[in-house]
Amino acid sequence: MISIRLSVAVAALVGLLSMAAGLATGHLVSGFISPSASPFLAVGSSAIDLTPLWLKDFAVRTFGSDDKVVLLSGMAVVNGLLGMVAGLLSRRSRTPGLVLIVVLGALASVAVLSRPTAGPLDVLAPLVALLASVGTFVVLHRLGRLSQLPAEDATGVSRRTLLAGSAAVAAGAGIAAAGGQLSAGRSGVEASRHAVGRIMPTVPAPPIPLGADFAADRSPTFITPNRDFYRVDVNLTLPQLRAEDWQLRVHGMVDRELTLNWSDLTSRPLIERPVTMTCVSNEVGGPYVSTANFTGVLLADLLTEVGVQRGADQVFTTSVDGWTCGSPTAVLADPSRQAMLVIGMNREPLPIEHGFPVRMIVPGLYGFVSGTKWITDMELTTFDARQAYWLQRGWGQRASIKTMSRIDSPGPFERVSSDNPITGIAWAQTRGIEKVEVRVDHGEWRPAELSTEVNVDTWRMFRLRGRWEPGNHVAEVRATDKTGYTQTADRAAPIPDGASGWHSVQFTVL
Prior knowledge:
- There is one protein chain.
- By secondary structure, this protein is an alpha+beta fold.
- It contains eleven helices and 19 strands.
- A hairpin with a 5-residue loop joins strand 14 (433-440) and strand 15 (446-447).
- Helix 1 packs across helix 4, helix 2 (39-50) packs across helix 5 (95-113) and helix 5 packs antiparallel against helix 6 (124-147).
- The longest helix has 26 residues, at 8-33.
C-alpha cells in the first residue's frame, strides 16, 4: 500500500471514537461485575482521592452537589482529547496511537485494582476496555487510510463507508455505556428498599410542636423532606447494598466480637429522634444543613454489649465502598449523645444516596468524623493506630459542629417590601441555641424571636420583624448557644474543622 497520511479530522475522529468505544465497553462489563470496576469511574474516584484540599473545597463551594457531574464531564472531555491526541500521533502509522492507548489502559487497570473494594474479577473491565479500544483503533485507522486512496485504486473505500463505520462505533459506544448503567442499577437495591417498607420506631419521637419553624415567613420547614436533604460525599456511583445482604462486624479492642445482620439490627429497640446534620464543607451561610427524624439503634447500647477495652479512643468505621471514618469512642459511648446506627429517615428506609440500608449518625459531630454511610465494619482502636480517609488528608480529628446561624429571608440582593421579616436558622448541636441577634446596616444588635425548641440537637428558627426604609440594606446575624458562647465574627474556611463568621445578606426595600 502506498504511504497514506490521514487528514487531521479523520485522525482525530479515529482516536476519539476508539477511546469512547473502550470506555463504554469497560463500563458495560463493570455493570455485571461491580460498578467500581468501570475504568471511567475508577479513574474518577482516584482523581477525587488525589485531589488537593483547596481544589476539593473549591469544587464543593462552587458546584455544590453537582461537583461530581462537573468532574465526570471534565473527565469525558479529557479522555476525548487524549483519544484525539492518539489519533493525531498516528496520521502516518498507527503505532504511536496504539502505544498511548495501551499506556492509558494500564493506568486505568491500576486505578480499578487500587480501589478499596477491588476483587480479582474487576480487572476484566479495564482489560476488555483496552481490547475494544485497540480493536476499534486498528479497524477505523485502516478504514481511514483506505478512504484516502486515489479513486482509481480498487483497494480503497468510500468516505461514506468510513462515516458509516464511525457512526456504528459511536452508536455502539452509546448503547454499551447505557447498558452498563442499566446493569449497575439492577442490583435489586431499590426492590430491597421497597420491601423494607415503612420504618416504624419502637420509641417514636414526640410530635414536632407548633411554632418549631417560621416557614410562613420563609424560614425552612423544621423537618427537611428526604428529597431536599443535602448530600456531600466522594462517591461517583452509589454503593449498591441490599438490606438482606447487609452485615456489620464489631471487633478490635472489645471483649466480645459481634456480627449483626439486618434481622438482628431491626429486632432491637428502634429509637426515633430529630437531629440536625451539618457538613464540614458548609460555608458561612451555606446550604449543607438539614434536619430529619432518624430511626435507629443506640450505639451506646451496642458498645456496652461488646465491652470496650481500656485505651480504645477511636471507633473506626468502614463503608461498603472502602471509605473510612474515625469517631471518638467517648462520644459514641455516651448515652446522652444518642449516637445511632440509623435505618430510617422520616419514617422511610434510608434513601440509597443517604446510606441505605444502614448508616451512622452522631449529633454534634461533622459527618466526616461520624456519618459513615453504607456501614459494614466497626473497629475499636486508637487514633494513633489508624487514620481515616479525611484525617489522612489533613482534616480535623474530632470536629465538633460550631455554633452558627444563617439568614434565609431576604435572599441575597432580593427586592422586598418594607415589612418583610428577617428569618433564618441557627444551630449548635448538643448545646442548643439560647439567643439569636440581628443587626441592619451595622447598627445595634437586636434580639430575634426564636421558634419553639425541639431539642438541643436540632436547629432553631429566628425571626426579626420591623419596618425598613426604602433603599439598599445589609443584615447580619449571630447566635449564642446555651453555654454562653456567641459565634465569632472571625472568618475561617470550612477545612479542616468547620467554617466560622457572621452571615450577612444585602437586600433592597422597595
